[in-house]
Amino acid sequence: MPETVKHDHLREEFNRWAEAGRGQGMEHDHLPVVLPALALMDLQPDENVLDVGCGSGWLSRLIAQRVTQGRVVGMDISDEMVRQARKASGGLEHVMFVLGSVDEIPWDAQFFTRVISVESAYYWPDPAKGLREIFRVLREGCSAWILINYYRDNPHCHQWGAKLPVPTHLLSAEQWAALFRAAGFAEVAHRRIPDPTPTPDVYSGRWFRDAAELAAFRAEGALLVHGTKPAGASPPEPKLRVL
Ligand SMILES: C[S@@+](CC[C@H](N)C(=O)[O-])C[C@H]1O[C@@H](n2cnc3c(N)ncnc32)[C@H](O)[C@@H]1O
Fold first, then answer.
1. Is 235 contained in some domain?
2. 151 and 172 in contact (C-beta within 8 Å)?
3. Domain-embedded: residue 72
4. pLDDT tens for residues 156-205?
5. Which CATH number belongs to the domain containing residue 94 in this structure?
6. What angle do helix axes 79-88 and 22-41 make, rounded to 10 degrees?
7. 77 lines ligand 1 (CB under 6 A)
């Protein structure tokens, strides 16, 4: 299937999510695992951060509270998500939202000091290409962080693939780490972040069989993978020619 068709499918699907209000709803679901990830990242006030697959922009706005002297760019393939993110972020001068896909990030090389992506990477049509693009827009010595709930080592999420109307990648932690290394990242590491949210007695949603499976899923936790762009990894700046 051509890449443009894959992008169209993703855009249409996530536009539907946005129109149904699911962009906002995801803050409630993802925050319990995002907060420990942000603590590990230890963002500094002057950083420039890219939020890939930003959805309705809640995480970009949260990061903006930490990087008060830097810039936050949220990027999403869904124009409806971007529209909602912009609408909810009026007045925040150092935050902006752009339409784009991770495999062709509409930004200059070496601009960002961090890249974060929450619950998005397993949808990317070509995760290896996406990680190479993230590597390109990062400065040397700076790091990329991917947080996902759908990965092979957690058996309690495997059923999602069949329920989602767009293709997904069910990779293990080691496979994600290998993709990071292949893109050029060093100091690649991964860890689990358990979700401490209390599980209700009865579960009536569509993603888990019952409350016990939801509890087991949360106990396994989200997968956080990160890596650093080493010094000397960028192509040299074009040299001035002396005539
Ligand atoms: C499950 S939502 C998560 C949204 C947000 N990160 C959050 O936690 O609320 C996945 C998001 O990734 C975006 N996405 C999927 N594939 C993408 C791609 N190739 N490039 C950029 N964004 C993508 C979707 O449009 C959607 O907004």
1. no
2. yes
3. yes
4. 999 999 999 999 999 999 999 999 999 999 999 999 999 999 999 999 99
5. 3.40.50.150
6. 70
7. yes
